[in-house]
Amino acid sequence: MEITVAITKKKGGEFVLEKAELDDPRSNEVLVKVVATGMCHTDMAVRDQQMPTPLPVVLGHEGAGIVEAVGEDVTKVKPGDRVVMSFGSCGHCPNCQKGFPAYCYYILPLNFGGSRPDGSHTLHQNGKALSSCFFSQSSFGTYALATERNVVKVPQDVPLEILGPLGCGIQTGAGAVMNNLNPAAGSSIAVFGTGAVGLSAIMAAKVVGCTTIIAVDINQERLEFSKELGATHTINSKNQDLGKSLAQIMENGVEYAFDTTGNIQVIVSALESLASKGVCGIVGVTPPDKFVQLDPNLLVGKGLTLRGITEGDSIPDLFIPRLIALYQQGKFPFDKLIKVYPFDQINQAVEDSEKGVTVKPVIKIGYQ
Ligand SMILES: [Zn+2]
Ligand SMILES: [Zn+2]
């Protein structure tokens, strides 16, 4: 079928809205009429070719919409169901079987390969293949082809428009806290970086009952905003000494630290902020030629743990409905992070997000 997509044609280039031809769903695939798609740093990382996906590509990996048609083997959803599209995973490798689909052995081909696993493309333009199947969806389009594995059925009584970011950025921050770090009620955490991922982690830390939640950033406006979402303390590391400020709040360090910046210096600071036996989670995308230099004695002597976390260690089918229930009870107000842009303003959304004007842009593509 003919659809409209936002294509990224060259490295660092703008999105261009054009027509393209979308395949019919295969046996395990789900055709989704896209209502809205969030924009996430990973879209920009591929645009800038820090990820291996070839160009030209149709990006978009936080889609939400309504199921239009399903392949013959699909039983999870049916036409008319409302879904969020999350990351792709195979379902049968050891990590998928253990309940860790974000560490699927086939995570790269299923999310960044630019095609189906068999090499075929779901999108074509004038007979030529476009890089597609981005996060098993490529949802910057009026329709998207996802798979049964990566669609998550969502309730009817929540605005579909805001739900897409739960499929990646929001579950990355919230899941790191709720699924991986798992701080006990009454514990302390420092969150480095107050973008969509960091603010989601702060909301999650409040949900699980952390009583000291320290937001660290250099953007004062974001730090103020983080207090609305649950931060009990803020540190502006541009004009405050981080170590001294932390020591004033928690004399012996925090029990948990969470870095969302991918900045090497910040990761080291996050580790250094920990009390003995502390755990530091990292989720940011770090440029490929940058390495953390750390003193192993620090880890050994203080019994510290440094943990990489992908997609909040979540099983999207279980975790996204939990986040929606928390949102509906007013305990996880992630809608406050979102600003909606019409499809033809997608480049404005990129600009606002890169300038830090908008925390989480969502591109409104179709109607419910
Ligand atoms: Zn797998
Ligand atoms: Zn993402």
Averaged pLDDT: 96
Quickly count the helices: 11
The radius of gyration over CA amounts to 20 Å
User: What is the H-and-E element order?
Assistant: EEEHEEEHHEEEEHEHEHEHEHEHEHEHE
Derived structural class = alpha/beta
Bound ligands, each once? zinc ion
SS strand fraction: 25-35%
Q: How can the largest sheet be summarized?
A: 7 strands, mixed
Low-confidence stretches are: none
What can be said about this structure in brief?
Helix content is 27%, strand content 26%.
Any descriptors?
368 residues, alpha/beta, 6-stranded parallel β-sheet, 27% helix, 26% strand, globular, binds zinc ion
Describe the protein in words.
- The chain has 368 residues and is α/β, with parallel strands linked by helices.
- It is 27% helix and 26% strand.
- It contains eleven helices and 18 strands.
- Strands 3, 5, 6, 9, 10, 17 and 18 form a seven-stranded mixed sheet that branches. Strands 13-12-11-14-15-16 form a six-stranded parallel sheet, with helices on both faces. Strands 4-1-2-7-8 form a five-stranded antiparallel sheet, with no helix packed on it.
- Strand 17 (338-342), helix 11 (346-355) and strand 18 (360-364) form a beta-alpha-beta unit.
- Helix 4 crosses helix 5.
- The radius of gyration is 20 Å and the shape is globular.
- The two termini are 20 Å apart.
- The relative contact order is 0.15.
- The mean pLDDT is 96.
